[in-house]
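debug: dumping io for the single-chain case to check the tokenizer round-trip. Nothing else runs in this session.
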Amino acid sequence: MPSVIFTFDHEDFLVPGSIDTAVQLAEALTRRGLRGSFCTVGLRAKFMQRLATPRQIATFEPHEIGFHSRSHGIKPVIAEELSKTGWDEGAELFIQREREGMEWVMETFRRDHLPVTLPPGYCDTAANGVWASARLGFRLVAGSPLVWNKRGVHHCAGCMHVRYSLWLDDFATGATFEEKRRQLERLLETEEYVLICDHPTYLYNAEWPEVGQAHLPPEEWKIPPPRPRETLEYALANIEKIYEFCANEPSIEVITYDELIQRESLERPKSLPREAVIQLARELALENTIRGAAVGGVPLSAAEVMAMMTHVLARPEKPIVPVRQLLGPKGLPGLPERDVPADGASPGILARAAEAQLAGEFMPDRLAFGKADATPGGWFRYAAQALADNEMSAIPASSPFPTEADAEDFRRNWYGWCMFPPDMSADRLMTMNRLQSWSFRPNRIE
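debug: decoded output
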């Protein structure tokens, strides 16, 4: 049975009328016995503390409350700041800044936790921000570009990720119910989870508040003009038809993000048989590729596969191999692309050196072997060939990225949206995302 999540980018901290629009959407769900997930900007929560009535705030009590950043489009946005830092400095900055916004949201809606975070405009998904989100207690990143072309739930940089599927904002620009219903039906045929999103602010306002003024301090922002009342009423009426369709369709289950997290929190095995790892290594050696894979029906990231192959080489007498979660490197090694001579050392000796370097939470950006350093990608290829009994005299030169890093998900650059400076390319963030593709894996085998 496919599951639907009604999710809202609850973000406007400028236009009082958008509060009523969000309230109407929440009430429409409640009347049908459905729960939505209102992912709220910290400043939106402060805005509602000042301007919303107690009755309006109480409207959201039956619904899930998530997080949508501290301050959304106010300069500098968090991604802009992270683009200028390294991993550790950026993660600490993220925690300091975003924790305040979380506290505002929890205070306004009287919640003791927020299960999900939603990066604004796809764009704030920086790998160290995702990792910092997990440190703040979030389990899931919704609307994540890191799984844009993937089905189901995936893991990357220490968090679950799930993508958006369908937007209802189009009703404000003339889309019909039949068009959206057909889109939804097609998604229900192929997707396990269908995330249906809309923006109360975009239904109410004729334009995003950031457009044309994101570069200004917030006190200088002008309130955008509202849409004609008949346009808003048309959009709300058709959104309610979608709610009605989902409430009455017996094959659809409407859930929240918290429920998704609970059902996808699978118990992963702590170990796997040595022979299964060797068989995988032989397959990888034939392919000469660097990727995640499934061993014994368990999906593993490229980093986890490398750690397991290293363990088998370093401890050949052990019949059981531990499964360790391992994140990608924090930065690029900056090594020349050249082979690293093995200097006659056996694969086991090299593997014991590598194993010591893979003992932390993150893979190192380089693996030291005597006087020479190899990239993680080079060691991955060497380990696979050694376990396949192929003689290797050197650790091959290799990209620091696994094969998955070349996928569109990790190259996609969303930083051209109106909330960012026009010249922002965010190369550092995109590189960190690509490095964390070492940690990328599906939650389950399809």
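debug: round-trip ok. The chain has two domains: 3-264, 271-400.
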